[in-house]
């Protein structure tokens, strides 16, 4: 800071750091945590959003579906992507195969 001695700058910096330690999101922070399961298997330690139980990263569709088959741990959350993914490949295989056969037939005549 301009106009202060080096000793008083250290004291001010130390005071600011001490104040920050009391308010940061450490392991002993008393607020509500997100708690969602991360890819590593541990629980998310980010603070939950106001009025919600999840953080900004893990909120997703949970704001609409808190329970039931569309909730973050519901049945459809797994089955819908599974069905679309494995339904898309056979359909595309036959569509592309049909197009290739049509091109080959058109080229022979």
Short description:
The chain has 109 residues and is mostly helical. The protein has a domain at 75-109.
Q: What's the N-to-C terminus distance?
A: 86 Å
Secondary-structure element sequence?
HH
Low-confidence stretches: none
Mean pLDDT: 75
In total, how many beta strands? 0
Strand proportion:
under 5%
Largest sheet: none
Topology record:
Blueprint: H1 6-23, H2 76-108
Account of the protein in words:
The chain has a domain at 75-109. The radius of gyration is 28 Å and the shape is elongated. The model has no long low-confidence stretch (mean pLDDT 75). It is mainly alpha-helical and 109 residues long. The protein is built from two helices and no strands. The N and C termini lie far apart (86 Å).
Keywords:
109 residues
């Amino acid at each position: 800071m301009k106009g202060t001695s080096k000793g008083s700058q250290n004291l001010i910096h130390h005071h600011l750091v001490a104040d920050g330690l009391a308010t940061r999101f450490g392991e002993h922070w008393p607020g509500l945590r997100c708690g969602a399961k991360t890819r590593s298997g541990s629980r998310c330690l980010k603070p939950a959003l106001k009025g919600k139980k999840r953080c900004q990263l893990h909120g997703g569709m949970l704001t609409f579906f808190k329970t039931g088959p569309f909730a973050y741990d519901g049945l459809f959350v797994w089955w819908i992507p599974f069905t679309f993914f494995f339904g898309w490949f056979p359909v595309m295989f036959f569509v592309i195969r049909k197009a290739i056969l049509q091109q080959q037939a058109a080229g022979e005549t």
